[in-house]
Design goal:
By secondary structure, the protein is mostly helical. The protein has three helices and no strands. It has helices spanning about 5-30, 40-60, 65-90.
Protein backbone atom coordinates (compact mmCIF):
# COMPACT_ATOMS: atom_id res chain seq x y z
CA UNK A 1 0.00 0.00 0.00
CA UNK A 2 1.15 3.47 -0.81
CA UNK A 3 2.21 5.39 2.34
CA UNK A 4 0.64 8.57 0.96
CA UNK A 5 -2.76 6.82 0.95
CA UNK A 6 -2.27 5.98 4.62
CA UNK A 7 -1.68 9.67 5.25
CA UNK A 8 -4.97 10.55 3.52
CA UNK A 9 -6.73 7.81 5.48
CA UNK A 10 -5.37 9.21 8.77
CA UNK A 11 -6.40 12.70 7.68
CA UNK A 12 -9.89 11.36 6.99
CA UNK A 13 -10.05 9.78 10.44
CA UNK A 14 -8.97 13.00 12.16
CA UNK A 15 -11.19 15.23 10.04
CA UNK A 16 -14.15 12.89 10.46
CA UNK A 17 -13.75 12.69 14.23
CA UNK A 18 -13.62 16.49 14.44
CA UNK A 19 -16.44 17.02 11.93
CA UNK A 20 -18.92 14.60 13.45
CA UNK A 21 -17.86 15.36 17.02
CA UNK A 22 -18.51 19.04 16.47
CA UNK A 23 -21.85 18.18 14.87
CA UNK A 24 -22.82 16.34 18.05
CA UNK A 25 -21.70 19.31 20.15
CA UNK A 26 -23.68 21.73 17.96
CA UNK A 27 -26.80 19.58 18.25
CA UNK A 28 -26.51 19.44 22.02
CA UNK A 29 -26.16 23.22 22.18
CA UNK A 30 -29.39 23.63 20.23
CA UNK A 31 -31.54 21.19 22.23
CA UNK A 32 -30.40 21.79 25.80
CA UNK A 33 -33.25 23.50 27.64
CA UNK A 34 -31.14 25.34 30.21
CA UNK A 35 -29.12 27.30 27.64
CA UNK A 36 -30.02 29.98 25.17
CA UNK A 37 -28.25 29.13 21.91
CA UNK A 38 -25.99 31.75 20.41
CA UNK A 39 -27.17 31.49 16.84
CA UNK A 40 -24.36 33.48 15.27
CA UNK A 41 -21.64 31.40 16.89
CA UNK A 42 -23.40 28.13 16.08
CA UNK A 43 -24.00 29.13 12.46
CA UNK A 44 -20.38 30.22 12.12
CA UNK A 45 -19.09 26.93 13.49
CA UNK A 46 -21.39 25.01 11.18
CA UNK A 47 -20.10 26.94 8.17
CA UNK A 48 -16.54 26.33 9.36
CA UNK A 49 -17.21 22.59 9.64
CA UNK A 50 -18.64 22.37 6.14
CA UNK A 51 -16.00 24.66 4.67
CA UNK A 52 -13.07 22.68 6.06
CA UNK A 53 -14.59 19.41 4.93
CA UNK A 54 -15.21 20.82 1.45
CA UNK A 55 -11.70 22.23 1.14
CA UNK A 56 -10.15 18.97 2.33
CA UNK A 57 -12.20 16.94 -0.14
CA UNK A 58 -11.42 19.34 -3.00
CA UNK A 59 -7.69 19.36 -2.26
CA UNK A 60 -7.63 15.58 -1.92
CA UNK A 61 -9.58 15.07 -5.14
CA UNK A 62 -6.87 16.99 -6.97
CA UNK A 63 -4.44 14.26 -5.85
CA UNK A 64 -6.47 11.52 -7.51
CA UNK A 65 -9.30 9.12 -6.96
CA UNK A 66 -7.35 6.77 -4.69
CA UNK A 67 -6.49 9.60 -2.30
CA UNK A 68 -10.12 10.76 -2.24
CA UNK A 69 -11.31 7.21 -1.53
CA UNK A 70 -8.80 6.88 1.33
CA UNK A 71 -10.00 10.17 2.82
CA UNK A 72 -13.64 9.13 2.42
CA UNK A 73 -13.00 5.77 4.06
CA UNK A 74 -11.37 7.54 7.00
CA UNK A 75 -14.37 9.87 7.29
CA UNK A 76 -16.83 6.98 7.26
CA UNK A 77 -14.88 4.97 9.84
CA UNK A 78 -14.66 8.00 12.14
CA UNK A 79 -18.43 8.46 11.79
CA UNK A 80 -19.08 4.81 12.63
CA UNK A 81 -16.76 4.97 15.64
CA UNK A 82 -18.47 8.10 16.97
CA UNK A 83 -21.95 6.65 16.40
CA UNK A 84 -21.05 3.47 18.24
CA UNK A 85 -19.80 5.53 21.21
CA UNK A 86 -23.01 7.58 21.26
CA UNK A 87 -25.23 4.50 21.00
CA UNK A 88 -23.32 2.79 23.80
CA UNK A 89 -23.78 5.87 25.95
CA UNK A 90 -27.51 5.97 25.24
CA UNK A 91 -27.92 2.29 26.05
CA UNK A 92 -26.25 2.65 29.44
CA UNK A 93 -28.61 3.43 32.35
CA UNK A 94 -28.67 7.05 33.38
CA UNK A 95 -27.97 8.17 36.95
CA UNK A 96 -31.00 7.83 39.19
CA UNK A 97 -32.77 5.41 36.83
CA UNK A 98 -33.11 1.69 37.50
Amino acid sequence: MNPILLLYFALGLALGAWHFGSLRWLSRQLVEADRVPRWGRLAGLHLLRLGLLGIACWATARQGAAALLALGLGLLLARQWLLSRVRRGLAAPQEGQP
